[in-house]
């Protein structure tokens, strides 16, 4: 399975957003995943902490939105919901349809933390054991 | 359902569950495909193929459905007509590449170790070991697996998915992501249909149509040389179409490209 490489791509993408926006970290990440993308949300959820370890996404919450499968019929023009292995038009039953939703693997939205890095404590206050 | 873990959130009430963004935070909207790096590399690979007028095909199937045997029969029939090259993907061994080289055809083996699919970067590295000038047809034999290979664009123009009659005829219904990505479906090992009468090629084709896939279906036996003519004719047609596209400065994306993403980013 390839969810870990998807998680790594996600961390890379969010890291560059953090960079572009001059932010400190990501707080919340929203992904849209369709069943036809071939990525299992539960496996991606378990892979994410491994990919994010040590990065500025480490503390981010991951929201996975499962997109419904919708098809548009090229014969009758109707748009309807469909099952992953039956992409038929619900109105007329024809198989000449186009998937309009359900195969996405999209990074939709990221909430970024803009707070300044806390100032480092001055060195001398840490030197408890230093000789006078 | 419980109120603590969030499992009672539905698409209908989800918006109420979000806390407003705190003053120290900002929200950016992105709508970006997560396989962007792979897809960029794939586009780069495809540009290499188009610049040389090469038609690139990605062969996908379960292990043992006869991809290498199909290539051997195809190359035997076409190698005097066209300049062919093959990229082989397997977890271990050079066995398949050696079978292709025995035909006098250039082959490069990608040994993936434990990776269950090829990606655009692996294919790009392989291209650096190959002589592409003058090549007409490039076959990329993906790792035998009906799941992961369907999610990665390699830079090919066409996907060919094999289904052997020793498997179930309901494979397209069980592995919809893979079979939806097929630009052609090959029912292989048809010489065994006489003894494996529980595989119905018509049912396999019906399951493919239920995935809204109009791809042509070819029934053939590489071992016995049956049904190859229609497949070879399709390859010739596709190469002609590729040359026409290249002449007009256009390219062709394989069916693997998700339509939904395109509609979202349009």
From TrEMBL, chain A:
List of residues binding Zn(2+): 73, 76, 89, 92
Keyword Transcription found: no
Pfam family, one: HypA
Keyword match Flavoprotein: no
InterPro entries: Hydgase_Ni_incorp_HypA/HybF_CS (IPR020538), HypA/HybF (IPR000688)
Superkingdom per UniProt: Bacteria
Keyword annotations of the record: Metal-binding, Nickel, Zinc
GO MF term list: nickel cation binding; zinc ion binding
Residue positions binding Ni(2+): 2
Alphabetical GO biological process terms: protein maturation
Family to which the UniProt record says this protein belongs: Belongs to the HypA/HybF family.
Main function: Involved in the maturation of [NiFe] hydrogenases. Required for nickel insertion into the metal center of the hydrogenase.
Name by which UniProt lists this protein: Hydrogenase maturation factor HypA
Organism listed in the record: Sulfuritortus calidifontis
TrEMBL record, chain B:
Organism annotation: Sulfuritortus calidifontis
A single BP term in Gene Ontology: protein maturation
Keyword Transmembrane annotated: no
Gene3D superfamilies for the chain: P-loop containing nucleotide triphosphate hydrolases
Pfam families documented for this protein: cobW
Ranges for domain CobW/HypB/UreG nucleotide-binding: 58-217
Source superkingdom: Bacteria
This protein's name: Hydrogenase maturation factor HypB
The keyword Zinc appears for this protein: yes
NCBIfam families: hypB
Molecular functions (GO terms): GTP binding; GTPase activity; nickel cation binding; zinc ion binding
Region forming the signal peptide: none
Stored InterPro entries: CobW/HypB/UreG_nucleotide-bd, Hyd_mat_HypB, P-loop_NTPase
């Amino acid at each position: 399975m390839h969810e870990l490489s998807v998680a790594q791509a996600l961390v890379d993408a969010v890291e560059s957003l953090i960079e572009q926006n001059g932010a400190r970290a990501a707080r919340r990440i929203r992904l849209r995943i369709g069943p036809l993308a071939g990525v299992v949300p539960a496996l991606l959820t378990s892979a994410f902490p491994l990919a994010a370890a040590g990065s500025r996404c480490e503390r981010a919450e991951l929201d996975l939105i499962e997109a419904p499968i919708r098809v548009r019929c090229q014969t009758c023009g109707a748009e309807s919901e469909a099952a992953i292995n039956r992409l038929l038009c619900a109105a007329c039953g024809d198989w000449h349809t186009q998937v309009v939703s359900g195969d996405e693997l999209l990074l939709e939205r990221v909430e970024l933390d803009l707070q300044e890095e806390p100032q480092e404590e001055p060195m001398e206050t840490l030197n408890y054991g230093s000789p006078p | 359902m419980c109120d603590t873990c969030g499992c009672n959130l539905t698409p209908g009430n989800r918006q109420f569950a979000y806390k407003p963004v705190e003053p120290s935070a900002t929200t950016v909207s992105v709508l970006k495909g997560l396989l962007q790096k792979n897809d960029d590399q794939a586009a780069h690979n495809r540009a290499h193929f188009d610049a040389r007028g090469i038609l690139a095909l990605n062969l996908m199937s379960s292990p043992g459905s006869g991809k290498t045997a199909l290539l051997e029969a195809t190359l035997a029939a076409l190698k005097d007509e066209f300049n062919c090259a093959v990229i082989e993907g397997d977890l271990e061994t050079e066995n398949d590449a050696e079978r292709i080289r025995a035909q006098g055809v250039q082959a490069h083996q990608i040994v993936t170790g434990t990776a269950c699919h090829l990606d655009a970067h692996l294919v790009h590295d392989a291209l650096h070991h190959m002589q592409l000038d003058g090549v007409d047809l490039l076959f990329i034999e993906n790792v035998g697996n009906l799941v992961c290979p369907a999610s990665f664009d390699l830079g090919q123009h066409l996907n060919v998915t094999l289904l052997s009659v020793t498997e179930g005829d309901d494979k397209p219904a069980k592995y919809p992501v893979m079979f939806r990505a097929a630009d052609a479906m090959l029912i292989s090992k048809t010489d065994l249909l006489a003894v494996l009468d529980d595989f119905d090629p018509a049912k396999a084709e019906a399951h493919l149509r239920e995935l809204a896939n109009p791809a042509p279906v070819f029934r053939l036996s590489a071992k016995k040389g049956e049904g190859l003519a229609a497949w070879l004719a399709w390859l010739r047609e596709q190469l002609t179409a590729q040359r026409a596209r290249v002449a007009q400065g256009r390219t062709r994306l394989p069916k693997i490209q998700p339509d939904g993403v395109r509609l979202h980013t349009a």
